[in-house]
C-alpha cells in the first residue's frame, strides 16, 4: 500500500472527516485483524497532532494487555478499574482526561503524558479492549475528539475480528 502522507486540515472536524475514510480505506481490504490494528495505531500516531502515544490495549483473561501502538515503551498489563484505561473498561465509556495527574489511580507509563483519551472497543455487546491516546499537552482532547475517535472504533469494528485477538 502506498504511504498515505500526513492528513492536513483547517479544523479538527475536517481533519477527522478526512481521517475516517482514510482509516476505512486502509483496513477494509485486509482480512488480517492484527495487521489492521497495527496500521490503525500507526495512522493515528502519525496524523494526530500533539500526541506522544496512540495504541491499543486488548482484553486477555480479565485484564488489558498491550497491543499495537506508536510511541515510547508502555505498560504491558492493566487491571480492570485501574488508571484511565482500566476505568474505561470497568465503566464501558470513553474517558477524556484533561490532566492525568488529577485522575485518581492514573498509571504513569510515560511521565511526559499530561492528558489522555480512552475509547472502549465494544462490538456486539462484548468489550474487547481500548483505544488509548496520550498527549504531553494539558487539555489536548475534547468532545470533538471523543465523537470522532468513537466513530473510528466503529469503523474498525466493521473490519476487525476482535475475537481472533482478544480472550474475553
From TrEMBL:
It comes from the Bacteria. Residues 61-136 form the GAF domain. One of its GO terms (cellular component) is cytosol. Belongs to the free Met sulfoxide reductase family. It comes from Caloramator quimbayensis. This is GAF domain-containing protein. Gene3D superfamilies: 3.30.450.40. One of its GO terms (molecular function) is L-methionine-(R)-S-oxide reductase activity.
Amino acid at each position: 500500500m502506498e504511504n498515505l502522507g500526513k492528513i492536513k486540515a483547517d479544523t479538527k472536524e475536517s481533519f477527522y472527516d478526512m481521517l475516517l475514510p482514510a482509516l476505512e480505506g486502509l483496513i477494509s481490504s485486509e482480512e488480517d485483524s492484527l495487521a489492521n490494528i497495527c496500521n490503525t495505531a500507526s495512522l493515528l500516531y502519525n496524523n494526530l497532532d500533539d500526541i506522544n502515544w496512540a495504541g491499543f490495549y486488548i482484553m486477555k483473561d480479565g485484564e488489558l494487555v498491550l497491543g499495537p501502538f506508536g510511541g515510547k515503551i508502555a505498560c504491558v498489563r492493566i487491571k480492570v478499574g485501574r488508571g484511565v484505561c482500566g476505568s474505561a473498561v470497568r465503566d464501558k465509556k470513553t474517558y477524556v482526561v484533561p490532566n492525568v495527574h488529577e485522575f485518581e489511580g492514573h498509571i504513569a507509563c510515560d511521565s511526559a503524558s499530561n492528558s489522555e483519551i480512552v475509547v472502549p472497543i465494544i462490538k456486539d455487546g462484548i468489550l474487547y479492549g481500548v483505544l488509548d491516546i496520550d498527549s504531553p499537552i494539558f487539555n489536548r482532547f475534547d468532545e470533538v475528539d471523543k465523537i470522532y475517535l468513537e466513530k473510528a472504533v466503529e469503523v474498525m469494528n466493521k473490519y476487525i475480528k476482535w475475537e481472533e485477538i482478544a480472550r474475553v
